Amino acid sequence: MVLEGVYKVRSIDEVVELLEKYRENAKIIAGGTDIVIALRNEKITPKVLIDISSIDELKSIKDEGEFIKIGAGVTFTKIVESSLFQKNLWGLYKACRLVGSPQIRNKGTIGGNIANGSSAADSIPPLICLGSTITLASKNGKRKVLLEEYYKDKANYGMKEDELLVSIDFKKPTENRVLSFAKLGLRKALAISRISIATFLELDKKGQVTTIRVASGSLGKYPMRELEVEEFLCGKKLNERTIDEAIKVVQQSMDERLKGRSTLPYKRVAVESMLRESIGDGIKFLDGVRA
Ligand SMILES: Cc1cc2nc3c(=O)[nH]c(=O)nc-3n(C[C@H](O)[C@H](O)[C@H](O)COP(=O)(O)OP(=O)(O)OC[C@H]3O[C@@H](n4cnc5c(N)ncnc54)[C@H](O)[C@@H]3O)c2cc1C
């Protein structure tokens, strides 16, 4: 199919009208860092593109008291520069800071990262750890989906051809909880994450785990919670021994999930340092809070 045109739109209403009209013949373009490659390789051949990069409503980060709302059109650079993602939300800052190059971070959006849905998308494991919800809009109205469910069950929760991802929101963690992130890329610059681990952690006064969420990138078909390791670590004191054992738990889950894949031996080794770094950074932060 030949590309007939590009609609440069200024409102969400305009986007949903066009999506309703063109359905599978339309594709949204935000920063273009993923889709332009797909167009060039003729992986997709839409009739029209809907350019959402001028919709102001999609480009803000809002501190709504109990919640933080990030517009789908917010770039990685904007997240890196926001003061909201320092301190105990530092894991999201780090994930965005490690995306590609300055050019990619300036153009690439968090909504594009989520919608493109690569297993290696850097922003997703931290957002899953935070229990994030995404809001999708169509002519029929809006619906909210838990990000974790969105990837797990695309048939029921995935984005439909007439939907626009509008925003991502999550509850602000209290200061005794921390989000951390570790990533191993193939190259230092422009590395698409080959393995990433995000951890959300809370410890009691004795240093025992009261809350833990662990999410991985590139350890399965999509970014996901590592429920077995969460269950293993909950209630335990974090030390060399328990972290070593936790690594074995993740490796066992991977063995089943990635059975027969040529990358499994490499990923088994790499996950070790990623989990250690992610949990270790979390402990260091909380030690500072408790000191
Ligand atoms: C050199 C290079 C390095 C990269 N490095 C990294 C990296 O380190 N980590 C990483 O995670 N990614 C990386 N990427 C991938 C890419 O930059 C990200 O996935 C980025 O977030 C995509 O956002 P975008 O706005 O450019 O999306 P686009 O390319 O505009 O769109 C991507 C897809 O999402 C859809 N879409 C976009 N916005 C919406 C919306 N609001 N609602 C519905 N659908 C939407 C589009 O239709 C398209 O299918 C890299 C890419 C390149 C080219």
From TrEMBL:
The protein, known as: FAD binding domain-containing protein
Source superkingdom: Bacteria
Key word Secreted present: no
PANTHER family: XANTHINE DEHYDROGENASE SUBUNIT C-RELATED
Organism encoding this protein: Anaerosalibacter massiliensis
Keywords of this entry: FAD, Flavoprotein, Oxidoreductase
PROSITE patterns to which the protein is assigned, alphabetical: FAD_PCMH (PS51387)
Pfam families recorded: CO_deh_flav_C, FAD_binding_5
Sequence ranges assigned to domain FAD-binding PCMH-type in this UniProt record: 1-175
UniProt-recorded Gene Ontology molecular function terms: FAD binding; oxidoreductase activity
